[in-house]
Design brief:
463 residues, Amidase signature (AS) enzymes, 8-stranded mixed sheet, 3-stranded mixed sheet, globular
Length: 463
């Protein structure tokens, strides 16, 4: 057994497994020990099944001993976001209505990580039906930030981000509509990628043509994230919007450079939203890292003035279509903010939805033109640092009241409706030591280039 630890890169764990210097069973036990140590306080891993995981790890070791061809994540401990169905494993969606739900089959994202050889050990906690960017529900309770348990881990992939940051898992899957991958990555100091529309297909869905939400990878560094994206990405005949490139293009070694890169940096997209002063400072200070690597940084931003109405309209329409019947059948059961968002979708007309999609087309075209003059856009991931865990959402930013539980997420969901890929990268800390990420956005379909740039930024920042 090596001196490999649970905070080591996933790439190193996989290399050690293949070299037989550590077994899958030994690696699992290291992670189970960390879960036992940290999870009671953080509450990131739910529906843990250690015995089933041990049986799976033993099978992984046997396959290696037989010299079988194995998948790219073979033997790696893994926990699936609790909004993704895992056949034969409790999957609650963070709702008491599904507290004892056990799906019959895996959904596509789970199919892919299982095929890649992971050792499943449990699920990661989520807010109710992944609504809101603070992870709490009435089944498992609240997930706390590993850097300060009195603070939020973000959401809806808060359990995934907190588990990663505390060494309970080496990689994690997530999903993102209005920032559900990016915000928790920023809050917990890890990396999270919202891919382009169609890059990570999902199945089954109630509406295969609804494209505001997408699955994506999370990791502790960019190269580990690329490894997982290589597993999650690629076409599937059941997903008609899937992009055709195979996932293998992202698993190749990253060797990017910042030299000559044209970086547009914007703290608030020209006053489009309020940003906490500490977050704004970190975003501005990131310019020094870009410049030191040879990039040209200028203050610039695209015009996304229709993004707020577009996102809120499509979100409400989506929630009403998907969860409206459940809300009607179980009045008073869903959390108040989720119920309100479902109800906001009820009076929407066809003209409202058409307006939102027309605006989304306009936004995508503006981004296309913007990226003719800039390689990436850099802005905050979240407008605030991690807020107190007993709040559902921050009540104000710099003393300015936030009217709804979505207001503080504009920096993330404005990018959602452009369809562009966006990565959350750790970039600094507040005066209190809380993590702050920057959001780096690239043209639609440009994940490979974005990962190369992100890896170069990460290398430069780490010195």
């Amino acid at each position: 057994m090596t001196d490999l630890g649970v905070d080591s890169p996933a790439r190193d764990m996989l290399a050690a497994l293949r070299a037989r210097s550590i077994s899958a069973r030994e690696l699992l036990e290291l992670h189970l020990a960390r879960i036992e140590e940290r999870n009671p306080e953080i509450n990131a891993i739910v529906s843990l099944d250690a015995e089933r995981a041990r049986a799976s790890a033993a099978e992984a070791d046997q396959a290696l001993a037989r010299g079988e061809e194995v998948g790219p994540l073979h033997g790696l401990p893994f926990a699936v976001k609790d909004t993704h169905a895992v056949g034969g494993w409790r999957t609650t969606y963070g709702s008491r209505l599904f507290a004892d739900h056990v799906p019959d089959a895996d959904e596509l994202i789970v199919e892919r990580v299982r095929r890649a050889g992971v050792v499943l050990l449990g699920k990661t906690n989520v807010p109710e039906f992944a609504a809101g960017s603070h992870t709490f529900n009435r089944v498992f309770g609240v997930t706390r930030n590993p850097h300060d348990p009195g603070r939020s881990a973000g959401g809806s992939s808060g359990g995934a981000a907190a588990a990663l940051a505390s060494g309970m898992v080496p990689l994690a899957d997530g999903s993102d509509m209005g920032g559900s991958l990016r915000n928790p990555a920023s809050f917990c100091g890890v990396v999270g990628l919202r891919p382009s529309t169609g890059r990570v297909p999902e199945w089954p869905l109630y509406n295969q043509w609804e494209s505001t939400s997408t699955g994506g990878p999370m990791a502790r560094d960019v190269r580990d994230l690329a490894l997982l994206l290589g597993v999650l990405a690629g076409p599937d005949p059941r997903a008609p919007l899937a992009l055709r490139e195979p996932g293998s293009v992202f698993a190749e070694p990253l060797a990017g450079s910042l030299q000559g890169l044209r970086v547009a940096l914007s703290v608030d997209l020209g006053g489009a939203f309020e940003v906490d002063h500490e977050v704004a400072r970190v975003v501005r200070e990131s310019a020094a890292v870009w410049t030191a690597g040879g990039a040209h940084v200028e203050d610039a931003h695209p015009d996304l003035r229709e993004a707020d109405d577009t996102f809120r309209t499509l979100r409400a329409w989506h929630f009403q279509a998907k969860l409206g019947p459940l809300h009607a059948a179980h009045p008073g059961e869903l959390k108040e903010s989720l119920a309100a968002n479902i109800e906001a979708g009820a009076p929407l007309t066809g003209a409202d939805v058409a307006r939102a999609y027309t605006q989304r087309t306009t936004l995508a075209e503006r981004m296309r033109v913007f990226f003719e003059h800039h390689d990436v856009l850099v802005l905050p991931v979240s407008q605030v640092p991690p807020f107190p865990v007993d709040q559902e959402y921050p009540a104000d930013i710099n003393g300015r009241a936030q009217e709804t539980y979505l207001d503080w997420m504009r920096s993330a969901y404005f990018i959602t409706v452009t369809g562009c890929p966006a990565i959350s990268l750790p970039a600094g800390r507040t005066a209190e030591g809380l993590p702050v990420g920057i959001q780096v956005v690239a043209p639609h379909g440009g994940e490979r280039r974005l990962l190369e740039i992100a890896a170069a930024f990460e290398d430069r920042q780490r010195g």
